[in-house]
Amino acid sequence: MKATWRKASGFGVSVGIALALVTAAPPAANGAANQPRRVNKAIELLEAGQPVYYDYGAGGYEAGRAAAKTWADILLYDMEGEALDFTQLRAFMKGLADGGPTPSGHRTPAVIVTLPVYGLDAATVRANHWMIQQALACGIHGLHLCHARDPRAVAAFVAAARFEIHRQAVGRGLPEGLRMFGAHRFAAEIWGVSPKRYYEIADVWPLNPGGELLLGVKIEDHIGRRHTERIVRVPGIAFAEWGPRDTSYASGYLDVAFDYGRKPGVVEPPPLRAAAQRVIRACKAANVFILDNVRPENVIAQLDAGIMICAGGIREAAEIGRRHTRRTMPW
After folding, report:
1. pTM, whole model, 2 decimals?
2. Which helix or strand (DSSP H or E) is residue 52 part of?
3. 3-324 belongs to which CATH class?
């Protein structure tokens, strides 16, 4: 489905509005009714102007099989605070593939990983590029860089996620890719594509329109916030967030950090709202998708405001939102 682009009500961020939307489709019994156009379910929806919703992934093979029919479009797999265990991540991805397809017909939901490498500076990211390499070799579909502080670090992050053969923006804001030959075998199997095809499509979207990888940044401390406008304009970054929990606790609001997105009625103190608005304004100007939490009581307002990557892991909020945007892809 082709999409047109317009400014969302209440924000300047560009969001795709599908040309033909009827009613939100209920979960399908299997994927036969829907023929996916992409490996990455989240990218396919974003291209069609539809918001995406995420839940959380953890564990190994059995956990992956259990999550294969998830209601979510994205599973966020945390290896920032949890164990850095690539063997377990591979097992999780294998379980997803064996338990699939998703109700939408995709081989797996999109899986985005957080790692314990922070975007402190370019040298730090380059020194830890092996974590990015190892995570992508597990067949995941994207990465979320925590504590993005320096645009040069973010550029190094993007380069570490790309194969050298992809050249968009190289020399114009990005170094050459660092992923090398041989990092494709398991990932291609998980994606259900040939090794050669994996090299062609394992690149960052939307910088590469044919890419199947989603890269995002968390601008979640006062150092990164000073460079917000430059960070979100690094080529290859598809989405950004203001890191409400880290921003809250680092600003002295520990209760807000624990409650945000989990309890209804949490109101950010003015310093936190100012931090959020700076990231949101920068995303609007750069045409970068915004990630934020949604709950059943605020999901429609969040969508109408332009939030396109919906965090929080609340199925009811996703169901309300999908009806509101008249989503047609099976859940």
Report:
1. 0.90
2. strand 52-57
3. alpha beta
